[in-house]
Here is the input.
Amino acid sequence: MSTFKTLDDLEPDKRVLVRLDLNSPVEDGEVQDNRRFERHAETVRELAEAGHRVVLMAHQGRPGDDDFVSLEQHAAILASHVDRDVGFVADTYGEAAIEAVESLESGEILLLENTRMCDDELPEEEPETKAETEFVQTLAPHFDAYVNDAYSAAHRSHASLVGFPLELPAYAGRVMETEYEANSAIATREFDGQVTMVVGGTKATDVIDVMNNLGGTVDRFLLGGIAGELFLRAAGHDVGFDVGDMDLFDDQWEANHETIASLLDERGDQISLAVDLAYEDDDDERAEIAVDDVDEKDRAYLDVGTDTVESYDEVVRDSEAVFVKGALGLFEDERFSKGTVGVLRAIAETDCFSVVGGGDTSRAIEMYGLSEDDFGHVSIAGGAYIRALTGASLVGVEVLQRN
Ligand SMILES: Nc1ncnc2c1ncn2[C@@H]1O[C@H](COP(=O)(O)OP(=O)(O)OP(=O)(O)O)[C@@H](O)[C@H]1O
Ligand SMILES: O=C(O)[C@H](O)COP(=O)(O)O
Here is the structure.
């Protein structure tokens, strides 16, 4: 299916510039190991073993956010998965970066600093414009080839993703290849029975947008997480508001409340909302409340409740295909993992076709002792995966296909 070149087409012993997606959760300043490292390690190891000089680019967070940090910790985590040293230089394309790149020997690996620390990276512009930036024009001449392995960032028209492939012979890495083939096949697939999509997580804007386009394909949407609460708010309940210094609901409400209202109006019979929610009580225990009994906007809800989990479990077990995007609660805290894990367990125990997407959400699988083998495909992509569900193309892939 792929129409791009892959590592099978790359001659050995080259100077290769590789784009990975190592964007990870950061807790108290500590980068959390996750499936992205393990998956990309395969591509990196293969390149090093083929005798290439391997220079890696990746991003972490966005300027202004708490998780916008250096990639120094990422180099150490990646090294533990590749089983080889991964050098790090705190520079993107300046003198220090170029010197480190030029001093690499065959089979050695170097990670450059967070691409989003470079001004040319982020503004979304045409690939041709990105190719002309100082970042791309300075770095590209030091390489023979460019490899894009960052399928999960391929919906972004950023310099490191779309500029370099116009300046260098470009190839897809192993993660790009696998994710592209698995996720692109979904849009054209037909199912005899019920198709269900579990929608949660914190990036409500991304998922609500996509729900609008998937109404014809998906029979039933099971909502939780931040998106779920915004739908409850639209249905007239006192949930889905920022309380204290929270910054999850009100902006996303502004951006999406009209779409939510029209989705509820036109597709209300396809949408299941939580009937109960869980929160942390004064003794730090999990407590639950029926949505109909909520009468104050003063509490943060961290999971869907037990009755909701039971009804979602039944829907999943009756489905022919289940797609998951985003967690139903703050599953990293075991007290609030019931919704996310309940749905994942139901999928794992049935033989439906399933795809679990999201860099964060897919972590719940190993955290709670489930096996990746019990799912059709576990994608490390979030935004790119849900765009693929709708059949939309990804700019980072399109540019590779031009080569
Ligand atoms: N009620 C809630 N309150 C706070 N956090 C929540 C709640 N429900 C879900 N989450 C969080 O949502 C996160 C997962 O969703 P998110 O939208 O960030 O990413 P994703 O779908 O995994 O993927 P990607 O970041 O790759 O797009 C989890 O880390 C979980 O803790
Ligand atoms: O984590 C992701 O989903 C990708 O790395 C894209 O990150 P972004 O949403 O910050 O562009």
User: Anything to note?
Assistant: The longest helix spans residues 250-267.
